[in-house]
Predict the structure.
Amino acid sequence: MTRRQKALENLNREINDHIEQDTQDHIARGMTPEEARRAALSAFGNVGLVKEEIRAVWIPIWIDQIFQDARYGVRMIRQNPGFSVIVILTLALGIGMNTAVFSVFNAVLLRPIQYPNPERLVSLSTQDIVFNSEAVAKADWMDWKDQASSFERMVGYGPSDQTIATGDDVTRARVMVVSEDFWEVSGARPVLGRLPQIDETNTLLLSHKFFEQQFHSDPNVIGRTIDIDGQQVVISGVLPEQFRFQLSPPVFPGFDSVSDVAAYRPMLHLPEQRVRSQNGVAINLVVAKLKPGVSIDRARTELKAIRTRIAEANPKWFTNQKQLSVLPLREKLVGDARQALWVLMGAVAFVLLIACATIANLLLARSSTRQREIAIRISLGAGRFRVLRQFLVESTLLALLGGAAGVLFARWGLAIVLHLIPQAIPRLTEATIDGRALTFALSTSLFTAFFFGLSPAIALWNVNVHNLLKDGARTFSATSGSLQVRRLLVVVELALAVILLSGAGLMVKSFWRMNAHGPAFDPEHILVMKLQFSGLQYREMARQRAYVDELLRKIPSIPGVQAATVTSPGARIFLFVEGVSVPGAAPPQAAVFNATSAALTRVMGLRLVEGRWMTDGEPAPVAIINESIARTVFDGRNPIGMRVRLPGRPPSMATVVGVVADLKYSKLDAKPEPEVYVPYAHTPALGRLTVAVRTVGDPLASAPSILKTISSIDKTQAVFDVQTMAEAQADSIAPRRFSLFLLGIFAFTALLLALIGIYGVIAYSVRQRTHEIGIRMALGAKSGEVVRMMVRQGIGIALAGIIIGLAAAFAMTRFMGSLLYDVEPTDIETFAAVAIGLGITALIAALVPAFKAVRIDPINALRYE
Amino acid sequence: MTESVIQLQSVSKIFVTDEVETHALSNIHLDIRKGEYVSISGPSGCGKSTLLAILGLLDSPSEGTYVLNGHAVHGLKTGERARIRNREIGFIFQAFNLIGDLTVYENVELPLTYRGMPRDERKRRVNEALERVDMVHRIKHFPAQLSGGQQQRVAVARALAGNPAIMLADEPTGNLDSANGEQVMDLLKELHKAGATICMVTHDPRYAGFADRTVHLFDGKLVAEGNHGNA
Amino acid sequence: MSTKDGNNRIELLQGTLDLLILRTLQRGPVHGHAIAKAIERNSEDVLQVEQGSLYPALHRLIKRRWISVEEGVSENNRRAKYYSLTAKGRKQLDVETTKWDKLAQAIARILRPAEQDGKP
């Protein structure tokens, strides 16, 4: 401030000196002092103006002017609180939704893995395209590790759910078994204790969360010995709170891949694991770190060469159903979520566009009241860009307020989504409103400000200043151009709403298709839980069978229980059919192998198509197959009475006695799979089981007594993941539920905004044509005719919006193919439903203000101008 | 010594709508000298408003030349016209046309802001202008809180503040009762005495008499000039 | 009113004043009043710069870093601001001079046919 004052003082002195000197010159030429001074002043010109111009050179005046525009903007916001609140809330909705989706997008797709040099991490796997699993045989991994030169590190890891006895409690938790390179690749540094040494395989590192929950954050746990699946291990450390397991989750059939990792155990390397035999190989997952400067292509080529060498040395080792996959870890982690997130991001951007159009519409409606103000400003010498800037400053203010409220909305929205569907997308729970999301919110706000601030300015671009100013206090009608713009905006809103509604409609239909099942299957009344045999005594199959026998005998006697059964986790096998399958060649399809009991039909409501179902106490091995496999593997022959080979050492033969209808009860969004059902008494090993109980009432109400009964059989065997079948199914489609939930909200918001838009335009046009309507009614127009006249333009707008929207939706829904189930992206039924539904609601939205027009009193209307 | 502030030479204005040409003004010559007080009168529809719009650079003539304060302004672009309007012209309207959401002070300040004047200079000028119309005590009021006469005085202050070459008044008393109307006319007279150049459009013969000279407009043509003899 | 005499006065084209100032400063640091006088004198009083307009122009040139300013003492022993060309300004002067020459030639070529008898 003082610097500026000093500069001003200097300037004054300089100018005074100049005039003084000029005066002296004139005196020297013989003028009187007064004449000289006057001449000097006149030669200099307007001193005030000169100073003004110089100051304008010093500070760009626009800063001052923008400040003034902003002050006026604040006043306008406070002057019309209702209007401002509507605008700010609409914006907050749009920006909030966008920010929330962006933060998910950011966490899942953009934010790099938090391990050092994430760009160099690659996921290596052998994918079995028939059994739909991926893993690397341990022998292969060891050869890669020894021979490949592209990698700095190569982590082998494998998850397992284990029973941990923490002293006062027995709990089941996900334990990640990791090779020693893991610590280097993840950069993990324990907050308590230390990392295991190479040969310390009987140690355990706890995640911070598990440490808090099971050990009450007691630092003395370090060095304590605990029991895991019957083995004694020492807790060697606790990992930091922020540390996450970020290597690609396992893909095994029947394995839930999103559980948090509770603890880490060093991987044991046994010499016999290097031997490649057909009967069971240790497998694990592999993530490797490329050496700096090595491309992923080079790594892939190198691994292929190593595989070729392995194949030459072990001719029977690889079949062509096993394929090498080398992918950047980040890509691997995102997987299917990528398309869903892009679709959601696009959809939510549409919501924002609609919000912008709505606000532009509101501003346009108000701009007729501001025409005079603008005309005054222009008459006082405001250039067009000044006027434009003023609108932009005002809209920026609104947008920033809306953006701030939007960030709050985003926080709540994100919390709700995470609460409802946390397991929907890998790493979803890591989504937060971070700096990047805030930057996104800010830039989105500024973008919207530009978008909706511009439209009223354009509508006022050609106002006839003089006409507006000359007359008295008469109010002014909007230019017809502004109404055109408003109609166009509503058409755009409707079109966007159609796109979103079509997308949401397709997803609703997918859900409907997924949940379609026979009347006998009643997932609401089935309780499912998992059971894993642990401990040495259960290594014997006889003990397992005895346990299951007792389980199935005791549970049905609990009040409220109708039936109980068990199923094995659904490993896949190749079903060799005697007399059909070619010896030595793989059959065309793998089948899901279920070891189960006679009660399965009663619990699940399986429908028998042919033959008979199993009994508990079959004298000889029997198998029941479902229709899917009956169609494919039996070569068109009647399967009843044919013999199939069951897994085991040595394999046994079972006679097919029945065929049941297909039923999908685990993963809702998968096609029905070929399945084989065999009595559990005739299977070689059970290991892990799902217990399913059908109840009369609420299955969760019966859960405590069921659990008590199970515990009474053998309390060392823990049951976990207790839920209703309906819940389990819902979890199986969590990613889709997530997408549907969001898309549904977006579509609903879009619909609402578009309806408000069409209502607003008709109401506005009624107001504008009050005079005309009055004349028509004075001349005897019937109210029906007036309503028709007003609604007609609404219908025109709606039709245009719907047609454009359908065309766009037709072109765009194909991008959501992977989100759909058993529904074509261009499903005519859905499109028709959307068009009709929207048409009807739009008609209603137009009718409401149109009926207001009928109530106009012609006398008042004619007086009103 | 008196220079021309406004020189119109052969100015015509033709509106073309759907193949119909309307000659709103034809062949107007008008010369307004520095310090003059000219009134333009005529029946409604005679082209007064169009003429005033052209004088005020809100519209441009179809033909002819317009020299404002030594600069030819008839062919200027919109932006340039806005700049000159801001510096050279002070408007006074029938409907006052104050901005309702700005205070008295801010209304008067507005043209100076558009000119890019620094804040302290603006403050000095606004206070000076409001003093001259005797409205300093209402500086923080909003237009709606003022009577019509007071609003028009604020509008006069706004026109004055920029120290324009000419003040254009369009029926300045049209929305006022006669007592307030008189007051505003007295104010204009006073400003004129202090050296302001004023051009006023009115159809009220009582007020036309306040001017040095009256120009009559009929059907877009100047028909007569009357001199009130007190130039 | 020497600056508003009408017929003899030639209004400066936009940007010309900058060129004249740069040219005047070529000979060394000069203060404001002297610049105005120098322009008048060198143009044999044909060009009459409204002296006040000199100062905004000077400040614009400072901002563009074509000239610099420093305190000095004037011939009558008063503190005064002396303006001088910067290296950038010197370069700019060459550019502007060339441009001006081209413009003048072009205009002269257009006007010559109308001036056959020497005087208009």
Q: What stands out?
A: The helical segments of chain C are 16-25, 32-42, 54-63, 87-111. Chain C touches chain A through 22 residues (CB under 8 Å).
